[in-house]
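Whether sequence alone determines local backbone shape is best considered at the level of individual chains. The sequence in question and its structure tokens are set out directly beneath this paragraph.

***
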Amino acid sequence: MSEQDILAGKVVSHMMDKDKFSQWLGINVIEVREGYSKISMTVRSEMVNGFGIAHGGIAFSLADSALAFACNNRNNLSVALDVTITFIKPVNVNDTLTAEATEVHNGKSTGVYLISVHNQKTEQVALFKGTCFRTAKPLI
């Protein structure tokens, strides 16, 4: 494991310790490395909307957390500048969702990431694209 990947793990651990919303979602960090993150969570009954499926904000929030972990893990405080999501399939209670964030561009002041969200059947349920702004301030 490279020094950058070790740093990435430390940064994401620090973020998770303070991120009450990701904790409430029940997010588990599966893998982090420089410019990349893979996380998962299980959909609970209180996350369902009036149609009996998971509220779109659940898949969005999981993807947003994956974005945050991937774009911040170089220890450069970065915030979302622009995001979009396409919902592909409905998400149900007890589904286990996995979000994988992959870096497309790593610039001095911005970064671009694609985040795929899949269920436990490996069906893609959402596609999220995020652009972040880098503040040049360290996280830890």
